[in-house]
Amino acid sequence: MEWNLRRMDSELREINPDLLQPSKSFKKPSAATVTLNVGGYLYAAQRQTLARHPGSLLEEVVGGKRAVQHVDGAGNAFLDRDGPVFRHVLNFLRLGELVLPDDFREAELLRREAEFYRLGDLARAVEEWEQRRAARLEPALLELTDHSERSQGFRIYCSDAGFIDRVKGRLVQVSKSRMDGFPEEFEVSSNAVQFRHFIKSEMGARLVLKEDNTFVCTLDCLKLETVMMALRAGYRLVTSLDSCRGSVLHSEALHFVK
């Protein structure tokens, strides 16, 4: 039996001398690609990808600054970490940004792995992703309220600042032959805008719907545009305060939820 094993070993070496030798990817710093065994999962990547963040554990390993303590049967560096989650670590190194599926449920584990690999940018990106996801899970509230004196305009508040940005992106101010962006005087915060007038911020100036150049000269026109944007964005009207029992546009306050 011992002779047979020695013979098999000899024959295998004749077929492929590297088959039973440790992986050369770590022995040769010039090797373009590196294979890692992470928790039993094999990952192949370019050396420069793994070394993209100076000071990280991976950069030290592939750069020869840190000795490889464990190898697998094929001689690949072995890291006793979570194998499936390393996919997202590697994609972050490749893309330069964190891209996760919407149903990802292991953010805390990924953050811990990022800390182990000393990838501070990835750890911060995971935290920001968790914050954005939590915000998406909370209902977005939208409120349109008239000024106490209706002729003086109305206010738009939305818990999703992105909707306010879309409203601002839909409107521009035109004065004479010049077209400006959204008037700063109407901005209250990232979540609210207050329209106080529509035609008289300066002589001849007026708000215009950017895409079709329709003049926004009345409160109703601007309110209708905002309502239509809300409905197209998936908001549902839940309450309407209407003291004069007129149309939705004449309501003192409209509340939407998404």
SSE arrangement:
Layout: H1 2-15, E1 33-38, E2 41-46, H2 47-50, H3 57-62, E3 77-79, H4 83-95, H5 107-116, H6 120-137, E4 141-146, E5 154-158, H7 161-170, E6 171-175, E7 178-180, E8 187-189, E9 192-195, E10 205-209, E11 215-216, H8 219-232, E12 236-241, E13 253-257
Parallel strand pairs: 1-3
Antiparallel strand pairs: 1-2, 4-5, 4-13, 5-9, 6-7, 6-10, 8-9, 10-11, 12-13
Helix pairs in contact: 4-5, 5-6
Care to describe what's here?
This protein is of the alpha+beta class and 258 residues long. It has helices spanning 2-15, 47-50, 57-62, 83-95, 107-116, 120-137, 161-170, 219-232; strands spanning 33-38, 41-46, 77-79, 141-146, 154-158, 171-175, 178-180, 187-189, 192-195, 205-209, 215-216, 236-241, 253-257. Strands 8-9-5-4-13-12 form a six-stranded antiparallel beta sheet. A four-stranded antiparallel beta sheet has the order 7-6-10-11. The protein has a three-stranded mixed beta sheet with strand order 2-1-3. α4 crosses α5 (107-116) and α5 (107-116) runs antiparallel to α6. Mean pLDDT is 82; it is low at 15-25.
Give the end-to-end Cα distance, rounded to a whole number of Å. Answer: 73 Å
Report strand %.
15-25%
Low-confidence stretches: 15-25
* Major beta sheet summary: 6 strands, antiparallel
List the helices and strands in order: HEEHHEHHHEEHEEEEEEHEE
Describe the structure concisely for a colleague.
With 258 residues, the protein is of the alpha+beta class. The chain is built from eight helices and 13 strands.
